[in-house]
Amino acid sequence: MIDAPARFASIADFEGFARSLRSQDRTGTRSVRLCMGTGCQAKGAARLYELFEEAIESASGRGRAGNIEVKPTGCHGLCQRSPIVVVEPAGIFYQQVEEPDVAEIFRETVLGGRAVPRLLYQDPESGRKLEAAEEIPFYKVQQRIVLSQNGRIDPTKITDYIAAGGYSALVKALTSMTPEEVIAEVEVAGLRGRGGGGFPTARKWRSCRSAAGGPKYVIGNGDEGDPGAYMDRSLMEGNPHSVIEGMLIGAYAIGSEKGYIYVRNEYPLAVKYLRTAISQAQEIGLLGENILGTSFSFDIQINRGGGAFVCGESTALMASLEGRPGEPRAKYVHTVESGLWGKPTNLNNVETWANIPHIINRGGKWFAGIGTEKSKGTKVFSLVGKIANSGLVEVPMGITLRRIIYEIGGGIRDGKKFKAVQTGGPSGGCIPAEHLDARVDYEELTNLGSMMGSGGLIVMDEDTCMVNIARYFTDFLLNESCGKCTPCREGLAQMRHILQGITKGDGQAGDVEKLQALAEILSGTALCALGATAANPVLSTIRYFRDEYDAHILDRRCPAKECRGLFIYQIDAEACKGCGICLKNCPVDAITGERKAPHVIDEQKCTRCGTCWEKCPFTAVLKV
Amino acid sequence: MNQDSSLIEQIVERYDRDVGMLIPMMQDLQAECGYLPTDSLRALAKRLNVPLMRLYAVATFYASFRLAPKGAHEVSLCMGTVCYLKGSAGISQAICKEFKVAPSGTTADRLFTFTAVNCVGACALAPVMVVDGKYYDGVTSESALEILQGLGPAEQAAQADAKEAAE
Ligand SMILES: Cc1cc2nc3c(=O)[nH]c(=O)nc-3n(C[C@H](O)[C@H](O)[C@H](O)COP(=O)(O)O)c2cc1C
Ligand code: FES
Description:
The structure holds 2 protein chains of 2 kinds.
Chain A: H1 11-22, E1 30-35, H2 38-42, H3 45-61, E2 68-73, E3 85-88, E4 92-94, H4 101-111, E5 121-122, E6 129-130, H5 137-140, H6 158-163, H7 168-176, H8 179-189, H9 201-210, E7 217-222, H10 231-238, H11 240-254, E8 258-263, H12 268-283, E9 299-304, H13 314-321, E10 345-349, H14 350-362, H15 364-368, E11 378-385, E12 391-396, H16 401-408, E13 418-423, E14 429-432, H17 442-447, E15 456-461, H18 466-480, H19 486-504, H20 511-525, H21 529-532, H22 536-554, E16 569-571, H23 581-585, E17 591-592, E18 600-601, H24 611-615, E19 621-623
Parallel strand pairs in A: 1-2, 7-8, 7-10, 8-9, 11-15
Antiparallel strand pairs in A: 1-3, 3-4, 5-6, 11-12, 13-14, 13-15, 16-19, 17-18
Helix pairs in contact in A: 7-11, 7-14, 8-9, 8-11, 10-12, 11-14, 18-19, 18-22, 19-20, 20-22
Chain B: H1 2-14, H2 22-33, H3 38-48, H4 52-61, E1 73-78, H5 81-85, H6 88-99, E2 105-106, E3 112-117, E4 129-131, E5 134-136, H7 141-149, H8 153-166
Parallel strand pairs in B: 1-3
Antiparallel strand pairs in B: 1-4, 2-3, 4-5
The structure holds flavin mononucleotide and FE2/S2 (inorganic) cluster.
């Protein structure tokens, strides 16, 4: 399958091969880059791929194909507009492509070199049709390093990765750097963990390298349990070799011969592509014994999770790798000294790993030049929720939340008002409008009562009830708590009980204070970070949206009109056309009115089920 | 039973009899049988020389393991934050009511097994429902029910055929 010798016996052999790939003359090659990420596949990208292949075949039958290729790639990022197709060499960016569009794209753009205006992105402000991705505001503000090859290369072809410069950092490390020098370079870069905690990567590596005993293990954390986050998924699906190369370099620096990647159970495509990537790397001698003929040996195995959020936590993850239930342990002894099977183990998030090749190739100084004083480089986020442009974005550290949400994300959907952005997943918090100018920086986000987290940015608008969101996360964590330590198991149950009461209109004066007291106990006494940070969603919403708690508790009113029973439905007599749909659908006959005349809801009979509100074709039913 | 013991043997050998690979072994077993049959678990425990309790602890800790047979189709509805914000709780209620099924349960006629999952990593398409590996985006209560009502035994047969052909 790979047009290369079975196994490179030396670095020189590999370099020769890589050079020939990288210097290939591609002039005259026309290429259709088709996003085959999960999002675009959901929208039928696989069928588009087949249609492009058929078009190429029939064109070549007529002798017109020349050098045309269709390349399935990972996520391009602008998932809101999926499926996405980019035609090279001009780089014309098409969005929301449907099956009938393929023929036109092929005829006009691939063969004719002209754009099809109908399928281009239209700038909502200027109304201009934009041809290249770089012109689109969503991409313009981003800085893509980790994702630089996502959407460009075919993740199932190691040759694509090598042609784009892949594995040159590994060669550089093996030929010109000692393990200590590798760690020093990562230290200069100031890289910190992308899995949530932000621990300095070089320091972790050094501790593991100098820990006594062996064998030593390195692990890639691809568990990505935070709901609302899919950065790691897109990275593993779009550029699996970048994670593998990072782990190879880390293993060389730490002195490890065995690695694991722990992938979330819900990510079948990521598992498949990682498996392919690993076996291709093994085939040509980039993984296995005596890599490229050197004395360095390293291999990677994939393990799938079992659908337990807590398994993203380091000690739980290792328990799971040992074939046990994923229960965390207290970390009096660090995992870098005693981790998997009691041996020194270095765990990093997959995005952390994917940064390594860039740092080795371009130098720690270059990396440290991006970002803020203590947060370096870029961060990948999944920008989702009530936002105009949902998608995967990579931005330099230090950029403000406002720029991400408004310049990249295009602001709030449907002309609604911004209320909060949730970062850090279930351990994070909700940041309100008055802090939109906060910068993306580990310390700054922590000071706001949230955290960097692994990269979910969930935007909420005026229709989202902040008490209900706090209840949602508490519920989530209670379900996912492993139950080993009492504060987490019982404390969360109490918090949920209180929050449920508040959202149902049974809140009591003093509830907020009780929640705060429970939160304090949790953060001080829980065994692992799941419990210790579990109260963050509650605390941050109390901190910024106390008025919403008070409205629920004291006035029995939900200002966002989300909590059932804490608002009522009324019919706007002006907007009502008297069509009778609400009347017909009301399950308790609470609506009366003559045809073609405004209807009314009997508040006594109404059970607030919301059916009329959903069914009304004229949005004449209001929540008040 | 004989076939069963050779399956266990295959799976155990695939991982060099390494007890540390218990979870992958159980995942493979479930992939073969659709769930974890008690007899197979017993055989696996015996083969690995570990107490059955240990397998049971694993099977009940991880949400993806099933101790009862599943329906002809697998339906997962995302309950992650984004899908929740966009109304997946209501969709779940609608499905449970219409098909008289509870989350993580199977319909009485074994048509489908319904699971509410945390996030399927396609948040830009929220709310998301996955049916037999196919992703549906932007679903509503109505469209979800429509999709599920369209699931038929005919498809079920076709699916079984395809599976056989693949094996
Ligand atoms: C409950 C819980 C869940 C976690 N989930 C993840 C996860 O899904 N992915 C991840 O990379 N780190 C996760 N972490 C953080 C890991 O424990 C660990 O800090 C991280 O993987 C280390 O890598 P890094 O230094 O590169 O960030 C989680 C932590 C906790 C407490
Ligand atoms: S929250 Fe539903 S796919 Fe992520």
